[in-house]
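Target chain:
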Amino acid sequence: MREIAETVVWAFLVAFIIRYFVIEGYYIPSSSMAPTLVPGNRVLVAKFYYRFYRPQHGDIIVFRYPSNKKKNLIKRVMALPGETIRIENGLVYINGVPLQGDRFNRVYFNTGYYGKGEQAVPENSYFVLGDNREHSRDSRYFGPLNRRYLIGRVMFRGLPLKRVQFFKAPTY
């Protein structure tokens, strides 16, 4: 009995450490990241990742919502500290250069307080947008995201099985 109890305690301890410090699964409840992630998808988030690396353009991240720290959101990093971002005529401009490519061939809306005009991203902050720009509460509404709210980087989509995918940061 003692051996079984020790095994169970160690198993729970290892599971706790892995879940809270290394990697955790998340369920996608909304369409704010469609078409990349849709409701019902399940992803694995590397919580340790940003202890060693800085967020990069295109990273899909999970973070605590700044106005409700009990709520987690998932968005894409668009602008890094020290960069400027502007949404105009349906395009997103980083440091005055419009984003191009298949990922960005849709209309972006310059809504919300922070979505109008050119914004400078402060140090230790990131401008994040949902891929579904029409239906996403993101940095256009709550402003640049401070690094302290970051939970981790989405590394893998596991469900549904027909959409299994590893995510790496695109360059643009």
Remarks:
- The chain has one domain: 26-160.
- The chain is about 15% helix and 35% strand.
- The chain has a mean pLDDT of 82.
